[in-house]
């Protein structure tokens, strides 16, 4: 259920400006409302986009979160590649990487 | 009265959000085709536009995921994404709860559709509206097919949903237009973003243009995932649009545009 809880936090954050403000003010307090492992909590608060990707967070949910965190497109893609480089392939979900670690199909 | 328009179009957020990174020789004809479809919709005198979307966890989550949903509100808002990132300002979009109620009641004769009195639009609807209805003048009826969280509705049910929408549109006095928005092959939100299987796309569009139910619904999800990526699951919206129209389709524009992370298509079908 834990990955579900990570995604639930991000789903609620992504669509609600009030939760976004609360998260920016005190991310730990928002995270406390969900049943998270220490690894998940750290990944959310840092944020560690690469680890969240590897944990299996749905790509659309993660993309919207990265946009909220003002992470530029090329940086967002690179953070996911770096996550796979460090932590290995995604552990859940359908958003697996099918290209090489240094392959940039759209040039970014 | 009879459905007045049925089209398909791509909705990737990069289409607006990364406009400046795209080659103008690909981007500009795509935008022109998109806007031309908006003109074609307006020329029908459409009073409402049903947008069959494949939303991305803006409203529906894994705690309670409808296979099919239709909005039933007088007003919607969007985008949920950072407006600067999507480059579409946050805005109110007019709905029509009473019209939705009548459409839903008819759809329910054959498809168990959920209704939603609250709906926040994400890029799946906001990108198409940016081009099709830049003046924000149309009445919008959002509809959704779950293409994100497996298990997903079978393709033949997506076809049935399109048929049901057609029957519902025909049963109300208003002039109803419809578009299905999705992607064909794409691997969005992964490091592969920009990968596109053009041959698979063109084969799918050939099937879409044929409006042949058997050909359109012959894919397994495993095949779609292997050849078209997880973004390929969104062919459901195009299948529904073809089913609603019933006639042959015309692809007005298709080109893979990697920085937009999807094969970019605009097309419409004969209403029969």
Automatic annotation (TrEMBL), chain A:
Alphabetical list of SUPFAM superfamilies matching this protein: LigA subunit of an aromatic-ring-opening dioxygenase LigAB
Leader sequence residues: none
Presence of keyword Flavoprotein: no
Keyword Cytoplasm among UniProt keywords: no
Keyword terms, alphabetized: Dioxygenase, Oxidoreductase
Ranges annotated as spanning the membrane: none
CDD domains: Extradiol_Dioxygenase_3A_like
Domain Extradiol ring-cleavage dioxygenase LigAB LigA subunit, chain residue ranges per copy: 7-81
One GO MF term attached to the UniProt entry: dioxygenase activity
Highest taxon of the lineage: Bacteria
Name listed for the protein in its UniProt record: Aromatic ring-opening dioxygenase subunit LigA
Lineage: Bacteria, Pseudomonadati, Pseudomonadota, Alphaproteobacteria, Sphingomonadales
């Amino acid at each position: 259920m834990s990955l579900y809880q990570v995604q639930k936090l991000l789903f609620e954050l992504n669509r609600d400006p009030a939760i976004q403000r609360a998260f920016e003010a005190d991310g730990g307090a928002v995270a406390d409302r969900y049943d998270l492992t220490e690894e998940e909590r750290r990944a959310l608060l840092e944020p560690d986009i690469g680890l969240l990707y590897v944990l299996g967070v749905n790509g659309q949910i993660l993309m919207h979160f990265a946009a909220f965190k003002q992470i530029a497109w090329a940086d967002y893609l690179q953070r996911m590649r770096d996550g796979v480089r460090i932590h290995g392939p995604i552990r859940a979900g359908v958003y697996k990487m099918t290209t090489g670690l240094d392959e940039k199909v759209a040039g970014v | 009265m009879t459905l007045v328009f049925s089209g398909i179009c791509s909705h990737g957020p990069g289409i607006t959000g990364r406009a400046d990174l795209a080659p103008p020789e690909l981007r500009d004809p795509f935008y022109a085709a998109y806007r031309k479809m908006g003109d074609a919709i307006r020329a029908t005198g459409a009073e409402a536009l049903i947008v069959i979307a494949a939303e991305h966890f803006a409203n529906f989550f894994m705690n309670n995921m409808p296979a099919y949903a239709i909005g039933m509100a007088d007003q919607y808002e969007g985008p949920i994404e950072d407006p600067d990132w999507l480059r579409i300002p946050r805005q109110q979009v007019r709905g029509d709860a009473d019209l939705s109620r009548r459409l839903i009641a008819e759809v329910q004769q054959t498809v168990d559709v959920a209704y939603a009195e609250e709906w926040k639009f994400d890029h799946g609807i906001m990108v198409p509206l940016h081009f099709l209805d830049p003046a924000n003048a149309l009445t919008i009826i959002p509809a959704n097919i779950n293409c994100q969280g497996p298990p997903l509705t079978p393709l033949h049910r997506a076809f049935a949903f399109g048929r049901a929408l057609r029957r519902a549109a025909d049963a109300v006095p208003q002039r109803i237009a419809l578009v299905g928005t999705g992607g064909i092959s794409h691997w969005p939100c992964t490091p592969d973003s920009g990968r596109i299987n053009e041959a698979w796309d063109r084969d799918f569009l050939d099937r879409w243009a044929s409006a042949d139910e058997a050909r359109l619904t012959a894919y397994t999800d495993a095949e779609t995932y292997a050849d078209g990526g997880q973004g390929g699951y969104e062919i459901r919206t195009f299948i529904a649009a073809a089913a609603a129209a019933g006639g042959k389709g015309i692809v007005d524009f298709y080109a893979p545009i990697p920085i937009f992370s999807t094969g970019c298509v605009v097309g419409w079908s004969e209403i029969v």
